[in-house]
Amino acid sequence: xxxxxxxxxxxxxxxxxxxxxxxxxxxxxxxxxxxxxxxxxxxxxxxxxxxxxxxxxxxxxxxxxxxxxxxxxxxxxxxxxxxxxxxxxxxxxxx
Length: 95
Known about the structure:
The chain is mainly α.
């Protein structure tokens, strides 16, 4: 039995490339472009048909991954700021 994890692998890889310690959209587009080019070359036959549908699906996947990555980045920043505010608001004076 062979498991085909093409779509989940693409989604996980695109999402992972979107979330970074330092925000950089150039790194995302470089990684995403490389991944899409690799998937385009490695797609199964018949390769004559489906180029337009592949490009459309890739564009939708890239858009969703970019938006999800930006959202996760904003959530991470909000949680970090909330923790800093919660810890700095604690009263340290023992008297």
